[in-house]
Amino acid sequence: MILINLLPHREAARKRRRESFYASLGLFALLGGVISGAIFLWYQGQISDQQSRNTVLQTEIKRLEDQIKDIASLQQEIASLRARQQAVEDLQADRNMPVHLLNELVRQLPDGVYITSVKQDNQVISVQGVAQSNERVSELLRNLANASPWLSRPDLVEIVSGSVALTPKDQRRVANFNLRVRLLRASEADKAAKPAAAAPAPAKT
What we know:
The chain has helices at about 10-95, 95-110, 135-145, 185-200; strands at about 115-120, 125-130, 150-165, 170-185. By secondary structure, the protein is α+β, with helices and mostly antiparallel strands. Mean pLDDT is about 80; it is low at about 200-205.
């Protein structure tokens, strides 16, 4: 006997496959949503942690900037105090500068040279005088440049020939000179003396 299935089995099979497909699709969509949500939450946590670290870093940077400003202010105050201290020391040392000046002029003045005028403008000393010859003036300049710890950089402004009447009948030619020299402060004289003291003595042959 031949059995014939008259039910629409093909439509039923397609319906089952369609329902299975939609169920799988919904399941994958749900799984994708869960994974996406988990990734989103992980990234949000990472961003929140990084923002917290950035906030901490910004706070520390601001604190360090404030400390740097305080240090800079302290350095300015220290520099100002040192400048005041140096000014006070210079003023105290300057009280003895005229004494050093007169002592050095007496010590470095060669025979045959006479000083007629000495003027001081801060640390610049103007000296006028009379010498028996130009060679005496040159000797004075050498003494002031090399032999004095308190005087430096002598500069001959001018030298003019003249004459001096020793007696009504005795006229002697002389050299009238004008020079400038710098008077050192005590701190400058000490600095200039240290290299000279540290220089080795020439070997004896």
